[in-house]
Specification:
The complex is a heterodimer of chains A (about 375) and B (about 350).
Chain A (H helix, E strand, L loop, with lengths): L16 H12 L8 H11 L5 E4 L5 E5 L7 E8 L4 E7 L4 E7 L11 E4 L4 E6 L4 E4 L4 E4 L13 E3 L1 H4 L8 E4 L4 E3 L2 E4 L2 H15 L5 E8 L7 H10 L3 E9 L29 E2 L10 H14 L4 E2 L9 H4 L8 E8 L7 E4 H16 L11
Parallel strand pairs in A: 3-14, 3-15, 15-18, 16-17
Antiparallel strand pairs in A: 1-2, 2-14, 4-5, 4-11, 5-10, 6-7, 6-11, 7-10, 8-9, 12-13, 13-19, 16-18
Chain B lengths: L1 H9 L8 H11 L5 E4 L5 E5 L8 E7 L4 E7 L5 E6 L4 H4 L3 E4 L4 E6 L14 E4 L15 E5 L3 E3 L2 E4 L2 H19 L7 E7 L7 H10 L3 E9 L18 E5 L7 H13 L5 E4 L6 H6 L7 E8 L7 E4 H15 L12
Helix pairs in contact in B: 1-4, 4-8
Classes of the chains: A alpha+beta (about 375), B alpha+beta (about 350).
């Protein structure tokens, strides 16, 4: 049985104040890979009223089932990861100054001078960088001493919580950015849109699950540390196919560097563009997405007039990398909301991309039938 | 075998899009096996034989796919930027013709190199289809291409793209053909797996190994030879027989299996070479690490200029590889003296 509908016929599928408030709570929560409990609590509270079954597995994944309402529904896993990139205190150097390590692919260039929260109590701190000056006598300018190629080495940075709070934090404490969620007209700015936007979309899908599938929602852990939660979740759920929701870089600003050979040339390495709709994956570094599912997503978008874009092949990865290789192989595809400045303290997304991603995901799930797997890959 | 190998090599099937070569292989082996399935990753799995008391459940694997290219951007003038899918380097595809799966053809060119000392990278390459503008281009982002190179014969040696691993596929098919012609029944319950996505990390092998859960695995792979100028020393050489691999970048092969392969080759006068490889790995790794694990071996076929637009192999090595494989399938696998397993 296939449910057909137009973009406006399901009020539950719109982004309104309730959805924006929930996303704000999700983004402001601190949940670095391995320490997802703040987000897990929000997720459990949101999905419990709608779930046939909910459990939290050994790694902390939330696995929630919403049964279909037809005979022999397709078993579909939909995944979004709860963790964000962050840091961890490594070495206490005294007086509230700590060396720290990265968790996930944080861009070190974005760290100096940023404010951070540490530990369960969200104690405030600053990432500081001892400066070294090299005065260039000819040009009378000050040049900051850097590593080779002007790259800032992580080893030169410290987290400073001030001596007063030194006793309240310890080695092993998790550290996150402090960016507060805010709306900027058609855009939203927050930390951790990767992948709280996916979590928010999955919660909406779970609330409005289509009747033709058993929806196995997997709110996964430790994606940024190597797709680990998804690896075990896929084994446990053993779905017939999987849809993975994530947030992927939009590097769509023009080339501004003055000296680069690329200055003034077309940007050919944008990955995705803001405002161009949900990004459907062909392949990334960990997955060649199932062409049957890619085709299904594209056909669904075109049939319903939902804007979409194809993410440039190569680079990056999603939970699909772990899911598709599990057991005897699980046909998988990813769809992401584009975001500028992912893996930095502040990311920007467009509300319309969020809306269209939700619509596309819901429509694609509603139009699935077991026959899609009868065609050989 | 040469003309069959040519057809295999000329069938475009990059990682993730193996359908065409899978269909070709399926048509060739349909009547030679007891059961054929295609799994959800696209692996072609053929069973020959039944479980037997004196035998093992054996999984033989060769990957169907070749390295390819994926279009990442079409610029205003219709030039196509791309990234490799699989093991290709910029210098190895510069100048090659390519063919997209929808039939469009072009050539791989490079931006004018102003600094000759700068290493060539993929973002300086592009495909020229001879167009004037983006509107003329019949491609979309994500479209896949393979290298287009003529198959060549040089006496007993052949050149072509995708000899890695169409040669391995040819050896497995030829093994099935000969078993059928000679009414030869193996002691073992055999699973011939023509796997997908081998070029991107033996991904099809993982799921096939999980499904089959074999007692023992054998990978048939191409291996880089060391016998061209500037080649690795020591290294295997073309024309000296198939190589029995002891260790590679992903697997330490079971010494009992290595021993079994060596003794069989010696007993039947089949030429062979021993090899230790630094970086490559095979589907054997996936079999060894699947579920609770299984012992694995690797039979490899020496190949010059691997991962480039044109590779070279010796047909005698393929024939001898097939001979050795058939001999192995007819023998019980007995743990060697050196192995406590």
């Amino acid at each position: 049985m296939v449910v057909e509908f137009g973009p406006d016929s399901l009020p539950g599928l719109s982004i309104g104040d309730a959805q924006i408030c929930l996303l704000e709570r999700l983004c402001n929560a601190c949940a670095v890979s391995g320490n997802e409990s703040e987000v897990r609590q929000i997720v459990l509270e949101q999905v419990r009223p709608f779930a046939s079954e909910v459990r939290v597995d050994a790694l902390g994944n939330v696995l929630a089932l919403r049964r279909g309402q037809i005979r022999q529904p397709l078993r579909v896993m939909v995944a979004a990861h709860m963790d964000e990139v962050g840091m961890m205190l490594m070495d206490d150097e005294g007086d509230g100054v700590f060396r720290f390590e990265l968790i996930g692919g944080v861009d070190v260039a974005h760290l100096p001078g940023k404010s951070v929260y540490i530990g369960r109590a969200h104690l405030p701190g600053v990432i500081g960088r001892p400066l070294s000056f090299t005065a260039d006598e000819d040009q009378d300018t000050e040049v900051f001493g850097d590593g080779p190629d002007n790259k800032i080495p992580l080893a030169s940075l410290r987290i400073d919580v001030s001596p007063d709070n030194a006793k309240k934090v310890k080695v092993g404490d998790y550290v996150t950015f402090t960016t507060a969620f805010t709306r900027l007209g058609p855009s939203l700015r927050a930390k951790a849109f990767d992948d709280r936007i996916g979590v928010a979309i999955l919660i909406e899908l779970f609330r409005n699950a289509p009747p033709n599938i058993d929806l196995q929602a997997a709110f996964t852990v430790q994606e940024e540390a190597g797709l680990r939660g998804a690896h075990v979740a896929a084994y446990a759920l053993d779905p017939q196919l999987a849809l993975v929701l994530d947030c992927t870089p939009a590097r769509d600003l023009p080339h501004w560097e003055v000296d680069s050979a690329a200055a003034g040339c077309e940007n050919a390495l944008y990955n995705t563009r803001l405002g161009a709709g949900p990004a459907i994956y062909i392949s990334d570094s960990s997955t060649i997405h199932d062409p049957r599912l890619v085709r299904h997503l594209v056909e669904t978008a075109e049939a319903l007039g939902i804007p979409y874009q194809i993410r440039q092949p190569g680079g990056g990865g999603t939970d699909a990398g772990a899911v598709h290789r599990q057991r005897t192989g699980i046909p998988s595809v990813s769809v992401s909301v584009p975001g500028r400045y992912i893996h930095t303290p502040a990311t920007i997304i467009r509300l319309e991309d969020w809306q269209n991603s939700l619509r596309l995901a819901h429509a694609a799930l509603s139009r699935l039938s077991p026959a899609i797997l009868d065609i050989e890959r | 075998m040469k003309s069959f190998l040519q057809k295999l090599v000329e069938t475009p099937a990059p990682s993730g899009h193996e359908r065409l070569v899978r269909e070709f292989v399926r048509a060739e082996i349909e009547t030679l096996v007891d059961e054929l399935t295609v799994d959800q990753m696209g692996n072609l799995i053929a069973r020959k034989g039944q479980p037997q008391a004196a035998g093992l459940k054996m999984m033989l694997i060769a990957h169907l796919d070749e390295a390819g290219l994926a279009a990442t951007h079409i610029d205003e003038q219709g030039f196509v930027r791309f990234l490799p899918v699989g093991q290709l380097t910029p210098i190895n595809c510069l100048g090659s013709r390519v063919q997209f799966l929808n039939g469009a053809q072009g050539i791989i060119c490079a931006e004018q190199l102003t600094d000759e000392n700068k290493r060539l990278t993929f973002d300086r390459l592009f495909i020229d289809l001879g167009l004037s503008s983006r509107a003329d281009c019949p491609l979309r982002i994500g479209d896949q291409a393979v290298l287009l190179q003529p198959f060549g014969e040089h006496g007993g040696r052949v050149t072509g793209k995708a000899l890695d691993n169409r040669a391995g596929v040819a050896v497995l098919v030829e093994t099935l053909r000969q078993m059928h012609t000679r009414q030869f029944h193996s002691l073992h319950e055999l699973y011939f797996v023509f796997s997908v996505q081998g070029q991107v990390g033996a991904r099809g092998a993982m799921t096939a190994a999980y499904a089959i859960n074999p007692d023992i695995g054998l990978a048939i792979a191409a291996t880089p030879s060391g016998d061209a100028p500037g080649g690795r020393r020591p290294g295997v050489r073309l024309g000296q027989g198939p190589a029995i691999r002891v260790r590679d970048g992903g697997t330490i092969f079971d010494p009992a299996i290595v021993d079994w392969m060596v003794r069989t080759a010696e007993a039947t006068d089949i030429p062979f070479q021993m090899e230790v490889v630094e970086k490559e790995y095979t589907g054997g790794r996936a079999i060894q690490l699947s579920r609770a694990g299984a012992p694995v071996g690797c039979l490899s076929l020496p190949c010059r200029y691997m991962h480039s637009a044109l590779e070279m192999m010796d047909c005698q090595d393929l024939q001898n590889g097939t001979r050795l494989l058939i001999e192995l399938l007819g023998r019980p696998f007995v743990a060697g003296r050196s192995n406590p397993l």
